Amino acid sequence: MTEIRHYKIGEDRFKISEDEVARRELKVTKVADDVIQIQEEIHGIIALVGATSTVNIKKDELKELIKIVREEFGWTDIC
């Protein structure tokens, strides 16, 4: 069985109240030869409910994502 590796491409901390700071991590995982998964984990926010899922990607995180899918996942046709 192939080992699944997660690559962290971004990390932030931001203040959400007077005494609470949230932490955000953005990770990419190769699911299949032609499929990747982008995962955004936010820790510190209690309620997050809904049917829609979104991922916020900064410019430098997108550059890191492209680098990883080229070098680690072998996707040579990404530009």
Low-confidence stretches: none
Helix content: 10-25%
The helix-and-strand class reads alpha+beta
Reported for the largest beta sheet, the result is: 3 strands, antiparallel
* Average predicted local confidence, pLDDT: 83
Total of domains: 1
Terminal-residue CA separation: 30 Å
As laid out across the biggest beta sheet, the strand order is 1-2-3
Compute the gyration radius: what is it? 15 Å
What fraction of residues sit in β-strands? Answer: 35-45%
Number of helices: 1
Order of helices and strands: EEEH
Give your account of this protein's structure:
6% of the residues are buried. This protein has one helix and three strands, in the order βββα. A three-stranded antiparallel β-sheet has the order 1-2-3, with helices on one face. The protein has one domain. The protein is of the alpha+beta class and 79 residues long. The N and C termini lie far apart (30 Å). It is elongated, with a radius of gyration of 15 Å. The mean pLDDT is 83.
Can you lay out the helices and strands and say which pair or pack?
Blueprint: E1 6-17, E2 20-32, E3 35-43, H1 59-71
Antiparallel strand pairs: 1-2, 2-3
Task: Give a summary of the structure in a few sentences.
The chain is an alpha+beta fold. Helix content is 16%, strand content 43%. It has a 3-stranded antiparallel β-sheet with strand order 1-2-3, with helices on one face.
